[in-house]
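We emphasize that the prediction below concerns an isolated chain of 137 residues; any contacts that depend on oligomerization or on bound cofactors are therefore not represented. The input was used exactly as deposited, without trimming of termini.
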Amino acid sequence: MTETTARIDVPETSQTVRQLVRYTLIGGSGVALDLVVFLLLHNVAGMNEQFANVISTTLAITNNFVLNARFTFERRDRIVVRFLRFYAVGLTGIALTNLLFLAFTDGLGVNANIVKAGSMPLVLALQFVLNRKWSFA
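Result of the prediction step, given as a token string:
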């Protein structure tokens, strides 16, 4: 009698989980940087929320790329190409957040700080998938 069992590729699953945890931790540093810079530019300097978002997110993208290349995906080859891909993925986050600003801040009058903070988990999930499959593949 033979037993049939589904084969689970534990190393691949384990690697994905480790990468997700590292990506999330590094993303946390990027979120903190992004949010602090956004709040300073928008609330203190009085900059338009969409411009403040582009600047703060660009700083966070650069921070996250350097840390993810080193610690999460451990890839140091084709660094310029990978950064351009990572930045392109980051642009999806900027675009998504700016669309949410248009809908919620401009359209419904929701505070821009709340929209910015609320958009971050959605952007994180989208960008992890895109970066894992494209930027660091």
